[in-house]
Amino acid sequence: MQAIRYEAPGSVDDAVRLMQADPEARVLAGGTDLLIQCRAGGRRPTAFIDIKRIPELVDITVDAQGLRLGAATPAADVSADEHLRQRWPGLAEAAALIGSMQIQGRGSVGGNLCNASPAADTPCPLIVNRAVCVIAGPQGRRTVEAEDFISSPGQNVLGSGEFLAGLLLPLPAPSTADAYLRLTPRSEMDIAVVGAAVSVTLDHSGICTAARVALAAVAPTPVLVPDAAHALIGTPMDPAALDRAAEAARAAARPIDDKRGTVAYRRQVAGVLTKRAAAIACERARGN
Amino acid sequence: MSRIHVETTINGEPAEFLCSGEDTLLTALRDTLSLTGTKEGCSTGDCGACSVLLDGRLVPGCLVLAAEVEGRTVTTVEGIADRDSLHPVQQAFLNQAALQCGICTPGFMVAAKALLDANPDPTEQEARYWLAGNLCRCTGYDKIIRAVLDAAADMRKATA
After folding, report:
1. Which of A4, A32, A50 has the CB atom closest to B45's CB atom?
2. Which of B21, B65, B134 is opposite residue A31, by nearest beta carbon?
3. pLDDT value of position A288
4. Scanning every residue of chain B, which has its alpha carbon at the shortest distance from the alpha carbon of A99?
5. Are residues A226 and A275 in the same domain?
6. Which tens digits make up the pLDDT trace of A48-87?
7. ipTM surpassing 0.90, yes or no?
8. Domains in chain A: how many in total?
9. Helices marked H in chain B — which ranges?
10. Are residues A183 and A165 in the same domain?
11. A86 lies in the same domain as A40
């Protein structure tokens, strides 16, 4: 069997060159999905291109533009960063839910998105926060909105020689906040039966002026639910509005039956979590 | 097959070894460097038996490539004691008899050290969440958690 090479480029350009020279090479971030897939008999790459030696790929910057998150930044850093937690608590709480502390020391938000699991926790908070994916490749850099990045289970829009370099989240408007909730049978070390991310913006009188709702694990890819957002916009986020958002979430869910839950259960939970996450986001937005 | 030469620091000492591009830190530690305190459990990042510190960060040794530790700092269970005196976590595991077969124990100790480095005064709930990625199939977890909380109290007393 051919030995797998290990490369640790120090810049995005060097990583692009290495990828271009070898179409069978794979980019390695935390390895919590890739290494396991390789060992489980997945396609054997010719090389691991470790992008964690590229400073901007393991960096968190919060400034007037918003958040610049290096794609390979470990989840543990994302959930621990004070500035990030303050403005995007939903993203931070999703990062803190992935696997164990050990896994969070390796696995990244960028990798979680690229792996494209229907049940992944961080894609939905990225989507409700209008995250933009910065993709590096032979043609330079291009951007794709987070909701368009995942194409089907395990598949994303990255082309040959391309990799996810980072995520850009615009600074939230005043009185804006997000929240992420998921249901798992166990409190730790489990995968979402359903996840719900909500972002809301309130005006000075507490009326919701903008909202985004996204659901995980209820369809082949994360689902953005504009109807749930519309149910919240223009309301004081009162119980009736939350109920209408829950109804829209149930209607948008297209789950499957499996060992983790039935279609009926997942639909029901999608509504419940949407309502609860919206209430938490609203509470946080009032405090911002 | 070309081998990769890695220079690193393990338990405070310079170390070097040869590995292949797909060797894990876990196999390099155990099979090449004979540091067999770090245990192999699931090798899929689920059980915590291979927990080590990489630049002070808690990671599963089975999901770190050996070549990645070039120029980094690795701490294994062999490196947490202070020469002749056990780390307070190790002493507390002995005092509480917080082990049976011992396979999970090094991983628990390294993970517990990482917890107490980050949070010297964890609640029981915080300790249980932090250690959720370390599985023990013998003892149940009560003695382990008691040992970790005892060690935390000892360490706070020592620095007070």
Report:
1. A32
2. B65
3. 81
4. B133
5. yes
6. 999 999 999 999 999 999 999 999 999 999 999 999 999 9
7. yes
8. 3
9. 25-27, 88-96, 105-118, 124-130, 142-159
10. no
11. no
